[in-house]
Amino acid sequence: MGRWFVPGLGVKRWFFLVLLGITLLGVGLAIFLLDLYRTDSTNPILLTILSYASLRFLPRGLRVAIFTILGVGLAAYGIWQLNRSLLRPYIRPGRTVVEDLENFRRRERGPRIVAIGGGHGLATLLRGLKAYTRNLTAVVTVADDGGSSGRLRESFGILPPGDIRNCLAALSNDEQMLTQLFQYRFSGAGILDGHSFGNLFITALAEITGSFESAIAESGKVLSVGGRVLPSTLHNVKLVADMQLPHSLNQVRVEGESRIPQMQGRVQRVWLEPNDASAYPPVIRALLNADMIVVGPGSLYTSLLPNLLVHDLLGALRASRALKVYVSNIATQKGETDLYSCHDHVRVLEEHAGGRLFDVVLCNDNYNGKLLDDSQWVQVDEKSLEDGRLRCADLADAGYPWRHDSKKLADILMTILAEYTSPLE
Question: Which residues contact 265 (CB under 8 A, 6 or more apart)?
């Protein structure tokens, strides 16, 4: 019971307000009984009942203590049982109301963090950070044109919902049946083959609400999302790349995010068409108000850069006073970053962004485990070690060493944020 009075839960003020109301009600009842006692003083039966009910045979101080203890105890027990009855449908198995309330309040006061990227890397990051704060904003690329997202984009003219769906699922407060349903992918020979339920759900909501951004917001409500997921832009953009062909001096131009990794060659430069697409305004506000901005992990050319190529988004990122962290991938990606080191990842991002962008570069230094056949470790090379921004840590998932462990990644990011903000406090 004492845990309800821990500072910060926002409970004590209401408890004492209820207690004050009960006290005033008791004073009113006492005045009524006293008036009844005085007006009907000739009735011996009534006097006897009132005498025993008020414990007049005990000393006055003891009577005050008894009635006070009984009143507070009964009020507290009644409030506690009332809350349990009202909140029973929302209590998770093995958890108490006060535990959930403590966790909610702590995360409600958490730092304002903006995560920029796309794909499974961004979802992994969000899954870890949501344990620390509810003030999370995921900024997601909308250049995807492959798979289910690409087919829906072509058929319905909406922005690709796939990466947004992954982020909504990752931020859900209860990743159980409803979230599994949202991530379910149809299989078979029909027209639904390859589509995920969440993509279809967002598409249907976009038709019903009349806008893609409203569909995202409503989907977040359905999944009880703790945070926001925002598209980097509402424009129908296409990713274009110039690629150097292998064993040749010739370059080819590749159009479409899904085609870039499939093309044999080395990416030289990427850009968006149209190249003047404006950022979604809430993204600009989130960046300017953030305490920390995290770019990555994710596919370098097809998940991270499409966000930074939105010019006013990049301008807001530069103008923000937030701590800016780049999270390097653990393994290279075939067709995009073959043989890239940590330094190469940072170099490409900052060359496209037009200069130094990050305050911290976070890279994995755990090279244990077996990678997929078509990838290599993203190594911390000599040029990386010369960069004073470099921070290395074990970030690998034990079961899937080419992926980040969401808890390890979130823990080190919160440690870095605390180190950079504590001297200012």
Answer: 243, 244, 245, 246, 252
Domain chopping of the chain, boundaries: 2-104, 110-141+232-424
CB contact at 8 A, 160 and 152: yes
For domain 110-141+232-424, give its CATH number from 3.20.20.80, 3.90.550.10, 3.40.50.10680, 3.40.50.720: 3.40.50.10680
The runs of H, that is alpha helices, within 290-327 are 305-308, 311-319
Residue 90 has pLDDT above 90, yes or no: no
Residue 343 to residue 328: CA distance in whole angstroms: 9
Q: Give this prediction's pTM.
A: 0.80
For residue 405, give both structure tokens: 């462990």
Yes or no: say if 295 and 247 are a contact pair by the CB < 8 Å rule. Answer: no
Cα separation, 232 vs 213, whole angstroms: 11
Give, as one character, the DSSP assignment of residue 341: -
Give residue 422's identity as a one-letter amino acid code.
S
pLDDT band at 189 (very low <50, low <70, confident <90, very high): low
- Residue that the structure tokens 């038709």 belong to: 207
